[in-house]
Specification:
about 280 residues; Rossmann fold; six-stranded parallel sheet; 9 helices; binds the ligand Nc1nc2c(c(=O)[nH]1)N[C@@H](CN(C=O)c1ccc(C(=O)N[C@@H](CCC(=O)O)C(=O)O)cc1)CN2
Length: about 280
């Protein structure tokens, strides 16, 4: 068997087209503010991507690139200013933050109605009680990708490997809301392959290059690779690989590639969330 590929680009384009349509119905437009501290190369590249895609969709976009040593108080002051600015539709702080900054205090400072990452405790709680308006971008992007390829979720056994606040935990909440039977496993789960082989849909979001091998996958299962790891092999320059080993293609029924799978969905969903936030400001 060779797995059907589920590329992110067509699904992301469809999501961006919907975001454009909804933006056209907003006379005042929408404005995304992205805050980045320091020069971590991955963060610089993700923020550049968000800014470029936002402009392509027709959003206004401002990147606040602050020095790594920016005191937390200055960051909180910037967030307070943007919270109070009626023209600022969405605010995002790129993660990870430097060690001297308390990330949870910073995320809590963002107005939940402008929290386009969906990381504020009010939005996290809303996600678990079925009331969220701004879902976290990667899990929501994963579900949009499954919908795009008409992969059913209701009634399926879903296994998530990874329990991060950004992906694993919110994805579990969203799959439960869609009537999947959900198991969350992680790097310390004993006999991981016995757990993952029960999955109709397996989500790998643990951040370990090639952790998931054919031995972890039931024949014909759908496998969603959320991992983005910079992986060095022998003398080659590091390249981007997922949490799923390429040999899984011979066992799975369908598989997302890395790069070019879930990654583009994260950015598309962020822009959709920004348009949603702007709609709520316009029609509270
Ligand atoms: N505030 C946030 N910080 C972080 C988030 C987040 O959702 N909000 N997620 C990740 C990084 N991330 C977005 O910020 C992100 C990761 C990957 C991609 C992506 O498109 N990846 C491409 C490959 C890009 C490359 O060549 O490096 C792919 O997988 O095809 C977009 C966004 C951590 N921080």
């Amino acid at each position: 068997m060779t797995a059907r590929a589920l590329p992110g680009a067509p699904a992301a384009e469809a999501l961006l087209a919907r975001a454009r349509e909804r933006l056209a119905a907003l006379p005042g437009g929408a404005h995304l503010h992205v805050i980045r501290l320091g020069d971590d190369p991955a963060s610089v590249s993700y923020v550049r991507l968000k800014d470029r895609k936002a402009r392509e969709v027709g959003l206004r976009s401002t990147v606040h690139a602050l020095p790594d040593a920016t005191p937390e108080a200055d960051l909180l002051a910037l967030i307070a200013r943007l919270n109070a600015d009626p023209a600022a539709s969405g605010i995002l702080v790129q993660l990870p933050l430097p060690a001297h900054v308390n990330a949870s205090r910073v995320l809590r400072a963002i107005d939940p109605d402008k929290d386009v990452d969906g990381f504020h405790p009010v939005n996290v709680g809303g996600l678990w009680s079925g009331e969220t308006r701004l879902p976290p971008c990667t899990p929501a992007g994963v579900l949009a990708l499954l919908d795009h390829y008409a992969v059913p979720v209701a009634g399926k056994r879903a296994v998530i490997v990874g329990r991060s606040n950004i992906v694993g935990k919110p994805l579990a909440a969203m799959l439960l809301a869609r009537d999947a039977t959900v198991t969350v496993a992680h790097s310390r789960t004993p006999d991981l392959s016995a757990v993952t082989r029960a999955a109709d849909i397996l989500f790998a979001a643990v951040g370990r290059a090639h952790l998931i091998t054919p031995a972890h996958v039931r024949s014909g299962a759908t496998v969603i690779d959320v991992g983005v790891n910079r992986h060095a092999v022998a003398d080659e320059p590091p390249r981007l690989v997922g949490d799923v080993h390429p040999d899984v293609r011979s066992v799975a029924g369908a598989l997302t590639p890395v790069p070019g799978g879930v990654g583009p969905m994260t950015v598309a969903q962020l822009l959709m969330n920004t348009v949603t936030a702007a709609h709520h400001h316009a029609h509270p």
